């Protein structure tokens, strides 16, 4: 009988120091004794990456990407070898592997490499010998045999890709929260942990500022049908499963989330000629800035106002970009860094109407002014004053009875 | 015209922090601007290796060798990438390489691997493009594609082996002393820095406790005819050249050195039957202990006394070994940890007699009791009371006029 195979990913806070490593080793050992095969993917310990980055900055303000990857990849290499030793200490056979040793091949783009293939032969051989395989997250080897790092959220991606390549039964992402909630529990005290959520909902949550999982990993998991579980490494209890919608009842609204890291840019008196919007947003994209919500007013006497939201840390880039943009004339630019985007997400919205109007009336009752609106098939988002975001979140959570368990669609 | 190629090795104290790295980068940059090709081999920064070892001990009292190597090798990987960035900052084209990337292949013995081959193709290609190549010392890749470390003095060995493989013009070992001296300057204030020394003399110095170079690297350099230079990274001045004797005038005595890290073991009343010494020293060797000087007294009524010296830290191992040894009967064992071995080294001794008698008479004048004597073709060593070692060293240094410059043989 084949043992079930679990790929487990432990982030930086779960492996902050050697005490944490021992705790992770105990958890893995217990899974092994329960008859599972386990592949563990780990990040760098605690502040290791920050420390390495600080050293790099001391010798070069803008370090070469290849050398940066060569440097940063040591963080995960330290964790894998120490965790392997900690498992040996518990009497568990284990072997550590760098990204290269685990067969993770990337393209040539350093610091944000893409995984192009995984050759899981060596990992599989070790699993076949009942060994725990500990893989360095966040890294792979590129065609030049150089270490390449995968960029933000890279360790999650390593875990999901490994799970796909090994056809694992589940990919468990251990983090410092115990699952995905109907809302941020710090804002909504009666927020409820979700037992299950669809890939699409998780994607909306991820892109709406919920920090649990990065979109890239969820997209990869969806593409390859990898069942994900988000759970805490600090307690032993089930987390939130992320899988295909067919396996669960559709719900109208799964949760509500607030993104307070957005800023609103408004261009007033824009010459409303064909191609203006294209030129504007091409220039912003080329500056490396992700634009989220866009609103354009009705044109009046050949002029219009355009508002859009961007990550707050990118406002400087937008300002520089607007100074040198060509073919886009406008009267003035306004920046508002005190906004929040509040979103409701649920696959049931696909087949049900009325969610948006209930959102608007709930906020109207609170006298909250809606500055922008954006929707997808399974999401309604509103941009409002940041100061009112928590109150709005609580009101929407209550209005859709999210503390009561899922409302049938 | 081909540029001269220098391989430079900087040890842990020369790369202790990012300030040191910047200083090393300046030095390398200046050599590059002088028209040299440079390969740099570096150790881990300052206390990095100690810190990694401490973490390993926190999770396992006796860590697995493969994982230990996987862990420790990160120390050098951090240095190479940071030094590469520091060179970029000085406008110098540079690329870092791990042992594996530099083509350093080892056997399968972790923590003390032997270099079995170097494939310098990638290093050479980068040198051909006028790049400084920075190689992680102390490590290579074994047939399983795992990182293997070379053990003590491994970075020196990496540098010498790299110099041999690349047919470099010189291998420079940068350290915290500015060369090899006729004696330890802390003991003998008028000790003189040697401009040149032969491989054989350097080997005797190395094995006699002079910490400048490890025997393994000198042997390798001798075997492959790699000219070595020992010099300091803290100043710009020539160091001591180590090369073949033909290039220099033979001297009677090159220097005097004292090894205070030895202990004397004496077995009294040993049954003097054939094979006793063989059994004794085979057992000690199998315990992993290097025996240096051996003295056996004339047998009296079928019994004899045997004395030998071992590194002080290995006395425990010898004690355990003697407890369980079979076929060697003796009355009692004595340990003396307060001895020193003082040695005179010089290739001229090969063809000249009288050095030993001058040593003995010099020590007799000082009323120093000689406990043991050992000689090679180019060395005379005496074991004496540790308390008298400094005085003896100064007296011998003066007796052979070592402060006066080399005495012609």
Notes on the protein architecture:
- The structure is a homodimer of 409-residue chains.
- The two termini of chain A are 40 Å apart.
- Chain A has an eight-stranded mixed sheet with strand order 3-6-2-1-9-11-12-10, sandwiched between helices. In chain A, strands 13-18-20-19 form a four-stranded antiparallel sheet, sandwiched between helices.
- The radius of gyration of chain A is 23 Å and the shape is globular.
- Chain A is 33% helix and 25% strand.
- Chain A has two domains: 172 residues, 3-Layer(aba) Sandwich (Carbamate kinase); 165 residues, VC0802-like.
- Chain A is an alpha/beta fold and 409 residues long.
Task: Explain the layout of strands and helices.
Two copies of one chain form a homodimer.
Chain A: E1 5-10, H1 18-33, E2 37-42, H2 48-59, H3 65-89, E3 94-97, E4 104-106, E5 115-118, H4 121-128, E6 132-136, E7 139-141, E8 147-149, H5 154-166, E9 170-175, E10 196-198, H6 199-207, H7 215-224, E11 228-232, E12 240-243, E13 255-259, E14 262-271, H8 276-286, E15 294-296, E16 303-311, H9 315-324, E17 332-336, E18 339-345, H10 355-365, E19 372-376, E20 379-385, H11 389-399
Parallel strand pairs in A: 1-2, 1-9, 2-6, 3-6, 9-11, 10-12
Antiparallel strand pairs in A: 4-5, 7-8, 11-12, 13-18, 14-16, 14-17, 15-16, 18-20, 19-20
Assembly classification? homodimer
CATH class of the largest domain in chain A: Alpha Beta
Q: How do the strands line up in the largest sheet of chain A?
A: 3-6-2-1-9-11-12-10
Q: For the terminal residues of chain A, how far apart are their CA atoms? A: 40 Å
Instruction: Give me the CATH architecture of the largest domain in chain A, please.
Output: 3-Layer(aba) Sandwich
Which two chains have the most extensive interface, and how many residues on each? A-B, 37 and 37 residues
Give Rg of chain A in angstroms.
23 Å
CATH superfamily of the largest domain in chain A: Acetylglutamate kinase-like
What is the count of DSSP helices of chain A, taking H or I runs of 4+ residues? 11
Q: What's the domain count of chain A? A: 2
Roughly how much helix do the residues of chain A carry, as a percent range?
25-40%
Largest sheet of chain A: 8 strands, mixed
Q: Determine the mean pLDDT of chain A.
A: 91
SS content category of chain A: alpha/beta
CATH topology of the largest domain in chain A: Carbamate kinase
Basic shape of chain A: globular
- Proportion in β-strands of chain A: 25-35%
Number of strands of chain A: 20
Contiguous runs where pLDDT drops below 50 for at least 5 residues of chain A: none
């Amino acid at each position: 009988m084949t043992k079930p195979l679990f790929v487990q990913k432990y982030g930086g806070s779960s492996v902050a120091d050697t005490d944490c490593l021992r705790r992770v080793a105990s958890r893995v050992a217990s899974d092994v004794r329960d008859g599972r095969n386990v592949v563990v993917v780990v990040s760098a310990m605690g502040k290791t990456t920050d420390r390495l980055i600080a050293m790099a900055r001391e010798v070069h303000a803008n370090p070469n990407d290849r050398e940066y990857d060569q440097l940063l990849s040591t963080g995960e290499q330290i964790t894998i070898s120490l965790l392997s030793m900690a498992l040996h200490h518990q009497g568990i056979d284990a072997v550590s592997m760098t990204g290269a040793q685990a067969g993770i091949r990337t393209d040539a783009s350093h610091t944000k490499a893409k995984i192009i293939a995984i050759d899981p032969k060596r990992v599989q051989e070790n699993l076949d010998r009942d060994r725990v395989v500990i893989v360095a997250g966040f890294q792979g080897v590129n065609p030049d045999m150089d270490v390449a790092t995968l960029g933000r959220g890279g360790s999650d991606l390593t875990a999901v890709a490994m799970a796909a390549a090994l056809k694992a039964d589940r990919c468990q992402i251990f983090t410092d929260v115990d699952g995905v909630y109907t809302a941020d529990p710090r804002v909504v005290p009666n927020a409820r942990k979700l037992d299950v959520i669809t890939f699409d909902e998780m994607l909306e949550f991820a892109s709406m500022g919920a920090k649990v999982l990065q979109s890239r990993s969820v997209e990869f998991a969806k593409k390859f049908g990898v069942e994900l579980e988000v759970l805490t490494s600090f307690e032993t209890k089930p987390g939130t499963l992320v899988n295909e919608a067919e396996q669960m009842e559709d719900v109208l609204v799964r949760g509500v989330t607030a993104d307070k890291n957005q800023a609103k840019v408004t261009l007033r008196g824009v010459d409303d000629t064909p191609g203006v919007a294209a030129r504007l947003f091409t220039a912003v994209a080329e500056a490396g800035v992700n634009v989220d919500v866009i609103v354009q007013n009705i044109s009046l006497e050949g002029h219009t106002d355009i508002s859009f939201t961007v990550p707050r840390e990118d406002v400087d880039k937008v300002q520089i970009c607007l100074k040198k943009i060509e073919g886009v004339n406008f009267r003035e630019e306004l920046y508002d860094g005190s906004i929040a985007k509040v979103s409701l997400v649920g696959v049931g919205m696909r087949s049900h109407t009325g969610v948006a109007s209930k959102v608007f009336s709930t906020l109207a009752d609170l006298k909250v002014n809606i500055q922008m609106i954006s929707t997808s098939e399974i999401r309604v988002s509103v941009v409002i004053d940041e100061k009112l975001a928590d109150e709005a979140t609580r009101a929407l959570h209550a209005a859709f009875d999210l503390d009561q368990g899922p409302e049938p669609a």
